[in-house]
Amino acid sequence: MSDINPFENALKQLDEAARIMHLDEGMHEVLRTPKRVLTVSIPVRMDDGRVKVFIGHRVQHNDARGPYKGGIRYHPQVTLDEVKALAMWMTWKCAIVDVPFGGGKGGIACDPKSMSEHELERLSRRYAYMISDIIGPYVDISAPDVYTGPREMAWIMDTYSALKGSISPGVITGKPLNIGGSKGRTEATGLGVAFCVREGAKKLNVDLKSARVVIQGFGNAGTYAAKFLKQMGASIIAVSDSKGGIFYDGKDGLDVEALIEHKTRTGMVRGFRNAREITNKELLELECDILVPAAYENQITKDNAENIKAKMVAEAANGPTTPEADEILFKKGKLVVPDILANAGGVTVSYFEWVQNLTRDYWSYEKVHDMLEGKMVTAFNDVYRTAEEYKVDMRKGSMVLAVNRVVDAIKARGIWP
Ligand code: NAD
C-alpha cells in the first residue's frame, strides 16, 4: 500500500494537467474541490442484538457533464480522502470515454468479510436511506466497487425505490440481469482493456497475432482481459493471482478457457498443466510484448521499472504504476495505457445499463459489445492524439483531455449566479 494520501495524489495529477494546459486559476480551483461531501453514521443491529455504528461517505466531485457516477466500496480502510480521490478520478474517466456523467464515489468503513448477509443487507439499506436525498437516476448513480456487487446494488435499488414510491432501476448500475442489469457488464472491464491493447499494438506496429502477453491478477478484470486477448490472437504466456504465478511459453501460450476452469476448481492458477511456477517479481519482469497489471496498486515501482521488458503496459488495475516508475517507463519508450482509459470499459457499460433502464429497452450482448468497442477505440485515439499534441505520455494526455472536456462543460453552463 502507498503511504501517499490518495486525495493529495489526485490533486497532484490535476495540478500537473492544469500546468501543461495553462488552465485558468478559477477553473483549477473549481476542479480541486468536490462539489458536495456527505458523511453519515449508519447504525446497524448486528445478529447478536448489539447496535454497531459504521461511518459512510458519498462524495460528488463534479456534475458539469452529467449526473455524478461512481461505485460504493465496503472496506475497513475506507477514508474520506480515499473516497474524494476516487470521486475525482471518476470525473476524468467518464470524460475520457465521453459518457454524459460526472464523478462521484461512496464508501463505508466496514469489514464485509466478517459480517453476515443479513448484517450487510441492513447496512446497505440504511446507507441507501441516509444518502437517498442526494442520489437519484438524474442526480447521482452508484455502482459496485471493492467488496460490493449485484446483491448490494439490488438492496440499494429496492430501498431507494421504496422510499420514492416508484421503481427506479436507473439509480444504480451493476444490478442483477433480472432487475435491470445489462448484458456484458461482468466482462466489460476486461474487454475494454483488450480493445485498448489492440489499439496500442497498432501504434507500436506489434502484430497481436504474434504478441506475448503477461497478466498479473486473475480476477474479474484479468480473466476477461486474458480471454478476449486470446480471442484476438495473442498468446497469454504468464498469469498470476495472490497465491502465485505460472509461465508457459509453448505454442499459442496458455489455454485460457482450461485455466479458468482450473482456477474455478482449485481456487488458484498454480498447478495448471505443463506450466512452470514463477514469482510475482519474475512475472512482471518477463520477456514479453504486453504487460497487463490487473491486481492492485503500486506493483511497478522505481525498484522494478528498469527491468520491465514489455513494450506496452495496459493498466487494468487502478494505480499499478507509481509516478517514479512512470517516468522511467516513459524514458525507456514504453507505451503505458493509463488506468483511467484502460479500465473504463466497466463504467462505459454502466452507462449503457443506465440508458437501458431509462428507456426500458434492453439490448443484446452483441449490441453492448459493439457499442463498447466504439467508445473504447475512440477514447484510446483521443488520448493518444492529445498526448502527441502536448508531447507528454498517455497518462498526462488522458488527464489533459479529461480536464479540457470538463472545463468546456463548466464554461458552457456558466457559473451561477
Ligand atoms: P478481483 O478481486 O476480481 O481480482 C483481483 C486479482 O488479483 C485476484 O485474482 C487476486 O488473487 C489477484 N492478486 C491479489 N494480490 C496479488 C498479487 N500480489 N499478485 C498477483 N495477483 C494478485 O478484482 P478485479 O475486479 O479484477 O479488480 C482488479 C483491479 O482492477 C483493481 O485495481 C480494480 O480497482 C481494477 N478495476 C476493476 C474493474 C472491474 O470492473 N472489475 C473496473 C475498473 C478497475
From TrEMBL:
Active site residues per record: K105
Domain spans labelled Glutamate/phenylalanine/leucine/valine/L-tryptophan dehydrogenase C-terminal: 182-414
GO molecular function: glutamate dehydrogenase (NAD+) activity; nucleotide binding
Protein's name according to its UniProt entry: Glutamate dehydrogenase
Family matches, as Pfam families: ELFV_dehydrog, ELFV_dehydrog_N
Residues that bind substrate: K69, K93, S350
Sequence similarity: Belongs to the Glu/Leu/Phe/Val dehydrogenases family.
Self-association and partners: Homohexamer.
Gene for this chain: gdhA
GO biological process: L-glutamate catabolic process
